[in-house]
Amino acid sequence: MEPMTFGSPEPITPMASPPPNDRGPGRRRTAMVALFVIAGVAGGAIGAEVMLNRPQPAPVAARTSASTTSRGAAAPPTSASAVYRQAAPGVVTISTVAGRFGRVGEGTGSGIVLNNNGDILTNAHVVSGATQVRVTFNDGQTVAASVTSSNASADLAVLRVSIAGSSLHPMALGNSDTVRVGDTAYAIGAPFGLAESMTEGIVSGLNRTDSATGLTGLIQTDAPINPGNSGGPLLNAQGQVIGINDSIESPIAGNVGVGFAIPINTAKQMQSGANQ
Q1: What band does 270 get if pLDDT is binned at 50, 70 and 90?
Q2: Structure pTM?
Q3: Residues 215 and 92 sit within 8 Å (Cβ to Cβ)
Q4: Of 17, 20, 128, 266, which is most buried by a Cβ count within 10 Å?
Q5: Does the domain spanning 1-276 belong to CATH 3.50.70.10?
Q6: Residue 49, pLDDT score
Q7: What does the alpha-carbon distance between residue 228 and residue 231 come to, in Å, rounded to a whole number?
Q8: Which residues contact 271 (CB under 8 A, 6 or more apart)?
Q9: C-beta atoms surrounding 253 within 10 Å
Q10: What are the pLDDT digits (tens) for 46-77?
């Protein structure tokens, strides 16, 4: 496994489908088997193209360092609008351009601001194969980004943008080990390119496995996520990031209430291991 470090759109051009026997995400299964659809790209950027075809209320918790678990007791549950106001400035929309075999594809995903150094966490499949990556912030500012680290087996990647730290809004990271079935869950991202969209649901399962990606230990949620949500945050009732939205399971290539997120502690553990 390649180590990771945290320190240092719109219509999509269709891409060619993989062959029927391909073991990748574009593989077609029998009619009785659900398709796995990566929620990351609203179309076909090369890194995302394959994945897409997968068969005032109480105050919110104060921000903490994005590289550590929030200290102290979590704030009482807040309203969805309060969670959105707290979290939205730290959620970004990622646009990619990639080319293969003389064709160009564009894709859209989401990400979260990790720190004031300009580090952005997202899914590896969102930026895989991209020749151009741009990040759009909540205030509308769009800047170029570079991929500083990527771990395909964990489907996590870190981008870096050159922007004043004072204009960045790192998100508070929660503790995914304390998540329980039935907990409130919110997802923010850019489904189908619709940036700054928020959906609400609950944690509907834990320790799930996505057989299409091979990822294990996933958080299952019924908060609607769709292509374009990948890389964005799954939040708890206090507005803390508990997971990175990754994929959905669907027989119709659309949301049917079964989504998967990578626990945020997985990313923390990778950071900790890389820093040792």
Answers
A1: confident
A2: 0.73
A3: no
A4: 128
A5: no
A6: 30
A7: 8
A8: 4, 5, 6, 67
A9: 16
A10: 333 333 233 333 443 433 333 333 444 565 55
pLDDT value, residue 258: 87
Strand locations in the chain, DSSP E? 35-38, 91-100, 103-113, 119-122, 132-136, 142-151, 156-161, 184-189, 197-208, 218-221, 233-235, 241-250, 259-263
For residue 99, list its beta bridge partners: 104
Q: Would you please indicate which residues are annotated as catalytic (active-site) residues?
A: 125, 155, 230
Does the structure show a pLDDT above 60 at 129? Answer: yes
Give the span between the Cα atoms of 89 and 106, in whole angstroms.
24
CA dist., res. 228 & res. 125, Å (int) = 11
Q: Check if the beta carbon of residue 220 is closer than 8 Å to that of residue 202.
A: no
Residue among 225, 248, 221, 214 nearest 236 (CA): 221
Higher pLDDT, 68 or 240: 240
The type of residue at 56 is: Q
